[in-house]
């Protein structure tokens, strides 16, 4: 049985980022920092910045974090689950030295897809925890840091992890498009980009 594949073009990604930026602006929310989850979050984060940047103001900084899923094994080498592990993280000490920490800022976390939600849950939870620790260290516990999430695609499927309900209620969970639970082929993974774009065009993802 073949697995149905959804092909996504660069043009489609560009439009989804533009749509998200318009939604952010319409809600009157500013963005002070973008955190891209590598590697799928890098390209949408950069495109999103182009659309939410306000004329005459400095560029919004983009920070990168790297996360990987590793299989958890028993002594008998049986897979019992998957664990999210940091492979790259924000240097909060360096940010603090330059007075550009995340404290009191509006921060948006960007990834390409919300699949099982484990990666997004880990990223949000750990970033919130790190910011809280930094606030306590610097004596700035009265400042409020607001995190949002933007994904190009949300797979319509049961999730293995949760996000705070307040994120959805406040409109700070932003999705370009919700799609069925199929394999999503992104253009940056393509060997033959022309062939990839043909498939995306045939599916209307242009």
From TrEMBL:
Name one molecular function that GO assigns to this entry: glycosyltransferase activity
A Pfam family it matches: Pribosyltran
Record keywords, A-Z: Coiled coil, Glycosyltransferase, Transferase
* Sections of the chain in a coiled coil: 117-144
InterPro entries xrefs: PRTase-like (IPR029057), PRTase_dom (IPR000836)
Give the Phosphoribosyltransferase domain ranges.
10-129
Specify the protein name. Xanthine phosphoribosyltransferase 1
Q: Which organism is it from?
A: [Candida] anglica
